[in-house]
Design goal:
The complex is a heterotrimer. Chain A has 14 helices and no strands. By secondary structure, chain A is mainly α. Chain A has 2 domains: 1-35; 41-266, MetI-like fold (Orthogonal Bundle). In chain B, the strands form 4 sheets. Chain B has a 6-stranded mixed β-sheet, with helices on both faces. In chain B, a hairpin with a 2-residue loop joins strand 11 and strand 12. Chain B is elongated. Chain B starts with a helix and ends in a 19-residue tail after the last helix. Chain C is mostly helical. Chain C folds into 2 domains: 14-46, no CATH class; 50-274, MetI-like (MetI-like fold). Chain C is built from 11 helices and no strands. In chain C, helix 3 packs across helix 9. The radius of gyration of chain C is 22 Å and the shape is globular. Classes of the chains: A mainly alpha, B alpha+beta, C mainly alpha.
C-alpha cells in the first residue's frame, strides 16, 4: 500500500519539479551563464556605459516618486474603504483592481490620450509648458498606474482584521483623529504597508509595456532600464542586454528575498 | 427500525488488539497494547490527552499502521487491509462533514461508493435520517446545522454502510455540555437498537461511566486497566486509575475516596489534622470541605446526614481525618499530578512526519 | 492574489470630519487622474468616429488575427495552469522534501521579475542559441511558453491556502466509507479547491490577454502568425492609427474587466459559505 502511494507521490513531485525547472529555473540558469560568456569584465563594462547608468537612474527616479505616492494613496484608500460608509466604496475597490486587468500597452495609450498633446489635458499642459508624454512625467505616471494597487490591497485586509477597538479606545482617551491615525492605526498596519511597498517597488522597476509606449524610448533621455535591455537586444548588443537584465534580476531577487525575510520576522 | 437490526451481519465482529506498538519517530504513542472488545459491546477508551487513546482507535480503523503487533476484526488480521476495505464506521470529533454536500449526499456517500441503485440509496438514507432525528433536513448543508445535528449526520453517514465496527473519536468533544449529555444518552439508546460493536474515545470519565459496558483506562500509551465502571471505581488497579476514575483525596501519602474519608473530633492513629472550610448539606448526604493544617491541601469528605449531625462541625473548627478501616487506598507517589498537568509537552502527540492521506 | 471585495462598514465609526472628507477627496482625485480618466479616454477615442468606424477597426483582418491568437493562446495557457497550478500547490502543501521552502519562494519569481527579463531569459533556453537545441522562437509555442511563465503564480497561490485549510478528516472520513484516492480527490478535495482554481484561472487569463513585455523578444511579433493583441495595438499606435488602437483596446478591456468582476463574485460567494 505504501509503495503505491509512494509512487504517486514521487510521480507528482517529479512532474511539478520538472515543470518548474523547465519553465523557471533552467532558463534563468542558462541566461545567467550566457551573461558571463565574455567574462565578468565585459559585464561590468556594459553596465557602466553612460546610457545604461542613465537608464538605471531613470528607473530609480520613477521608483522614488511612484512608491511613496502609491503608499500614501494605498493607506488613504484602505482607510476610506474599511472605515467609512461612503456610498460608492465598492467602486473604489474595483477601480483599484483595474491596473491588473489592463494591458500595459493600453495603459500607455490611455495616458497619451489624456496627457498627450492631442489629449484631454494636452492643450492646458502645453500652455503651462509641461510636457508629459515622451518625457519623464509620463513615465512616472505610467509607473504609478501599474503599481497602484499593491499597498491598498495589502493594507485593507490587515485593517479589517485589527478592527476599530484600539482606535475607539484612543478616541475615548482624547486623541485627535490625526493622533489616533499616527500612533495607533499606522503601527498596527505596518506589516501590510511594508509588504505593499516591496511589491510596489518590484512592479515599478519592472514595468516595460506602458513605459515603451509613453516614452518614445529615446536613448539616454526617456529610457528606463527595462527599455534599455530591449534597445540593446534590438541593436544586437546581446552582452549589454544580458548585463542590464542581470541588474534588474538582482534587484527583483532582492525584493523577493527581502519579502521572505520580512515574513519570517513578522512571525 | 427493525430493518436496521436485521440487516446487520450476525457473525462475530469482536475486535482483538495484540501487542500493538506505535511510534512516531522517537515518540512512543502506544506501548504493548493488548485489548479484547467483545462483539456488539460498547467500549470506552478513557484517558488524558496524549494517552494514546485516539492513536489506538485510529490504528483499529486502519488510519494508522501499527509499528508492531496485530489488529483483528471478527478474527481476521487487518494488516494488509487499508481503511477503506475494513468496513469500519468512523466518527470524528469535528464531524468531518463534507461541507460542499447536502446532508442527504453526505449520508449517501458510502452507498454511492458501493454503487447502490438510486432508489435503494434514497430508501436507506431516508431511513437513517429518521433514525438520527434529522427528518426534513436532508437538503440542508452542514453549515446550516447545529453541532449536535452535524454529529448525528456523521453518525448516520457512518452507519449507512452497515459497518461491522463503529469507532468514535471524542464524538461529543466539540459540543456544549447539555448537548453532550443528551447525545451521550442518545448514542446509548442507538447502540441498544443497532448493536454494532462500538468503541469511543473520551477524556470525560463521567461520559465513559455513564454509557460504556467496558472502560479501558489509558495513560502514556499503555492500558492501565480494563473493566466495568464498578470494577474501576471499587477495585482500581493502580494510583492512576484511582485518581482518574472517580474523586480522590490525597491524605498522608495515600489516595482515598471522599466517601471513605473518616472525620474524627480527636486525633487518632493515622489521622491528619485539618481545619474545616465549609460544610455543605445536600439533603440526605453532605460534603465537608477541609484544608490540611500542615500543608493547606484541600480534602473533602462525603458523609451521610446522620454522620454529619453526630459530628456537628463548624467552619473554622479543627478535626482529624483518616481513611476508613476498610477503604480502598493507593500510595500517592505524585505520578497523578504529572498526568493531569495541562498540555504536558512529554505527552503531547507530535505531528506525524508522513504527509498522510491520499497522494 | 485576490481581488478586493468591499468589506462591510463598521457601524458608528466614521472618518473624523475634515480629515475624512479630505481622504475621500484625495483618493477619488488620485484614482481619477491616474486610472479613470485615461481609461475613459480610451473608450471615448474608440467610438470617436462612430460605431461603424469602431466595428471596422475591430473586424480588420489583422486585428481579428491578433485577437484570435491572443484569446486562443491565453485559453491554452490557463488550462495548463489549472492543472499544473493545482498539481504544484498540492506538492507544496502535501509533500515534504529538502529544498521545498526554496521552491515555494521561487513560485513568486514571475511576479517580481521584469517581463523583458523574462523574455530574454526564455529566449536563451528556447531560442536560436539554445544549449539544448530547442528552438521555438518566433512560433506560437513561444507565445504559450512566455505566457505560462508570467501566469505561473496565479493558480498556485490561489489554491495553496485552500489546500492548507482543507479539513483532512474529510478525506479520512471518505476513505473510511470506502472511497479510493481518485474518488476522494474528485468528490471531496476538488470541489473545495474549485473556487481557488477558478479565481486563479480568471486572473491568469486577464494577465495573459494583456501581456506584452514577456512576448516582445521571443514571439517575433509576425502579423497573423505570432502577433498578439498588445503588440498589434502598439503597432497601430506607431502607425498613428489611434482610433484603431483604442478600438482593439476596448475589446481587451471589456474581456479583462469581466474576468475581474467574476473573480470578485467567486470570493463573495466563498466568504458567504464560511462558517
Amino acid at each position: 500500500m505504501s509503495g503505491e502511494r509512494g509512487l504517486t507521490r514521487y510521480g507528482l513531485r517529479f512532474v511539478a519539479l520538472f515543470y518548474l525547472a523547465a519553465l523557471l529555473l533552467l532558463p534563468i540558469g542558462v541566461a545567467l551563464v550566457k551573461t558571463f560568456d565574455d567574462g565578468i569584465g565585459e559585464v561590468i563594462d556594459q553596465i557602466t556605459e553612460p546610457d545604461a547608468i542613465h537608464a538605471l537612474k531613470m528607473s530609480l527616479l520613477t521608483v522614488i516618486i511612484a512608491v511613496p505616492l502609491n503608499t500614501i494613496f494605498g493607506i488613504a484608500a484602505a482607510h476610506v474603504i474599511v472605515r467609512s460608509d461612503m456610498r460608492f466604496k465598492w467602486l473604489i475597490g474595483a477601480v483599484i483592481d483595474m491596473p491588473f486587468a489592463v494591458s500595459p500597452v493600453v495603459i500607455g495609450l490611455s495616458l497619451i490620450l489624456v496627457y498627450g498633446t492631442g489629449g484631454w489635458f494636452g492643450a492646458d499642459l502645453a500652455a503651462q509648458g509641461i510636457q508629459v508624454i515622451f518625457s519623464t512625467p509620463g513615465i512616472v505616471i505610467a509607473v504609478i498606474f501599474v503599481s497602484l494597487p499593491f499597498v491598498a490591497r495589502e493594507v485593507i485586509p490587515v485593517m479589517q482584521e485589527i478592527g476599530t477597538d484600539q482606535e475607539t479606545a484612543a478616541e475615548t482617551l482624547g486623541a485627535s483623529a490625526w493622533q489616533t491615525f499616527y500612533k495607533i492605526t499606522l503601527p498596527a498596519i505596518r506589516w501590510g504597508v511594508t509588504y505593499g511597498i516591496v511589491l510596489t517597488t518590484a512592479r515599478a522597476l519592472g514595468e516595460f509595456g506602458a513605459v515603451t509606449v509613453v516614452s518614445g524610448n529615446i536613448s539616454g533621455e526617456t529610457q528606463t532600464l527595462p527599455l534599455y535591455v530591449s534597445k540593446q537586444f534590438e541593436t544586437f548588443n546581446s552582452v549589454g542586454a544580458y548585463s542590464a537584465s542581470l541588474v534588474l534580476a538582482i534587484l527583483a531577487l532582492g525584493t523577493l528575498l527581502f519579502m521572505n525575510l520580512l515574513r519570517r520576522r513578522e512571525d | 427500525m427493525t430493518d436496521i437490526t436485521t440487516n446487520l451481519k450476525t457473525e462475530s465482529h469482536g475486535i482483538e488488539v495484540r501487542g500493538v506498538n506505535k511510534d512516531f519517530g522517537d515518540f512512543h504513542a502506544l506501548r504493548d497494547v493488548d485489548l479484547i472488545v467483545p462483539d456488539g459491546s460498547m467500549t470506552a477508551l478513557l484517558g488524558p490527552s496524549g494517552s494514546g487513546k485516539s492513536t489506538l482507535l485510529r490504528t483499529i480503523a486502519g488510519l494508522e499502521t501499527p509499528s508492531t503487533g496485530q489488529v483483528l476484526i471478527g478474527g481476521e488480521d487487518q494488516a494488509k487491509k487499508p481503511v477503506r476495505t475494513r468496513n469500519v464506521g468512523f466518527v470524528f470529533q469535528h464531524y468531518a462533514a463534507f461541507k460542499h454536500m447536502s446532508v442527504f449526499d453526505n449520508i449517501a456517500f458510502g452507498l454511492k461508493v458501493r454503487k447502490w441503485k438510486k432508489d435503494k440509496v434514497k430508501a436507506r438514507v431516508d431511513e437513517l435520517i429518521d433514525l438520527v432525528q434529522l427528518t426534513g433536513l436532508g437538503r440542508r448543508y452542514p453549515s446550516q446545522l447545529s453541532g449536535g445535528q452535524r454529529q448525528r449526520m456523521a453518525l448516520a453517514r457512518a452507519l449507512a454502510v452497515e459497518p461491522s465496527v463503529l469507532l468514535l473519536d471524542e464524538p461529543f468533544g466539540a459540543l456544549d455540555a447539555k448537548v453532550r449529555k443528551d447525545l451521550r444518552t442518545w448514542l446509548r439508546r442507538l447502540h441498544d437498537e443497532v448493536h454494532v460493536t462500538t468503541i469511543f474515545v473520551t477524556h470525560d470519565q463521567e461520559e465513559a461511566m455513564d454509557i460504556a459496558e467496558q472502560i479501558v483506562v489509558m495513560n502514556e500509551g499503555q492500558i492501565e486497566q480494563t473493566g466495568s465502571a464498578t470494577d474501576l471505581y471499587d477495585r482500581p488497579a493502580n494510583e492512576f486509575v484511582m485518581g482518574f476514575v472517580g474523586e480522590v483525596n490525597s491524605l498522608g501519602g495515600k489516595l482515598v475516596r471522599p466517601h471513605d474519608t473518616e472525620i474524627l473530633p480527636e486525633p487518632a492513629p493515622g489521622t491528619v489534622e485539618v481545619e474545616i472550610d465549609r460544610v455543605v448539606r445536600l439533603g440526605f448526604s453532605g460534603r465537608v470541605e477541609m484544608l490540611t493544617v500542615p500543608d493547606k491541601k484541600e480534602v473533602w469528605a462525603q458523609l451521610t446526614r446522620s454522620e454529619l449531625e453526630t459530628l456537628d462541625l463548624e467552619s473554622g473548627a479543627t478535626a482529624h481525618v483518616r481513611p476508613r478501616p476498610d477503604a480502598v487506598t493507593k500510595d500517592d507517589t505524585g505520578a497523578l499530578e504529572d498526568a493531569f498537568r495541562e498540555e504536558s509537552p512529554a505527552t503531547r502527540r507530535p505531528i506525524p512526519a508522513e504527509p498522510g492521506l491520499p497522494v | 492574489m485576490t481581488a478586493i471585495a468591499a468589506p462591510r462598514p463598521r457601524a458608528g465609526i466614521r472618518l473624523p470630519g475634515v480629515s475624512g472628507a479630505l481622504s475621500k477627496g484625495l483618493v477619488v482625485t488620485y484614482l481619477s487622474l491616474i486610472v479613470l480618466l485615461p481609461l475613459a479616454a480610451i473608450a471615448s477615442k474608440a467610438f470617436s468616429d462612430g460605431l461603424g468606424s469602431f466595428w471596422d477597426a475591430v473586424s480588420q483582418p489583422q486585428a481579428v488575427a491578433a485577437l484570435k491568437l491572443t484569446v486562443i493562446c491565453s485559453l491554452i495557457v490557463v488550462l495548463i495552469n489549472a492543472v499544473m497550478g493545482t498539481l504544484i500547490a498540492w506538492v507544496l502543501v502535501r509533500d515534504e522534501f529538502p529544498g521545498k521552502g526554496i521552491v515555494n519562494s521561487v513560485i513568486d519569481l514571475p511576479f517580481a521579475l521584469p517581463t523583458i527579463v523574462a523574455s530574454l531569459t526564455l529566449l536563451t533556453l528556447y531560442g536560436k542559441d539554445s544549449p539544448f537545441g530547442v528552438d521555438v522562437a518566433y512560433t506560437r509555442v513561444a507565445v504559450v511558453i512566455a505566457l505560462l511563465f508570467v501566469t505561473l503564480p496565479f493558480v498556485v497561490r490561489a489554491v495553496q491556502p485552500l489546500l492548507l485549510s482543507l479539513d483532512r478528516d474529510m478525506e479520512a472520513a471518505a476513505e473510511s466509507l470506502g472511497a479510493g484516492r481518485a474518488r476522494i480527490f474528485r468528490q471531496i478535495v476538488f470541489p473545495n479547491l474549485a473556487p481557488g482554481i477558478a479565481a486563479g484561472v480568471a486572473l491568469a487569463f486577464a494577465r495573459a490577454l494583456g501581456e506584452f513585455g514577456a512576448l516582445v523578444l521571443i514571439s517575433g511579433n509576425v502579423p497573423y502568425k505570432t502577433e498578439v493583441a498588445s503588440v498589434f495595438i502598439r503597432g497601430q499606435i506607431e502607425s498613428d492609427n489611434i482610433v484603431g488602437a483604442a478600438a482593439v483596446s476596448v475589446v481587451l478591456l471589456a474581456v479583462s474587466m469581466t474576468l475581474l468582476a467574476f473573480v470578485n463574485l467567486i470570493q463573495k460567494w466563498g466568504l458567504r459559505d464560511e462558517r
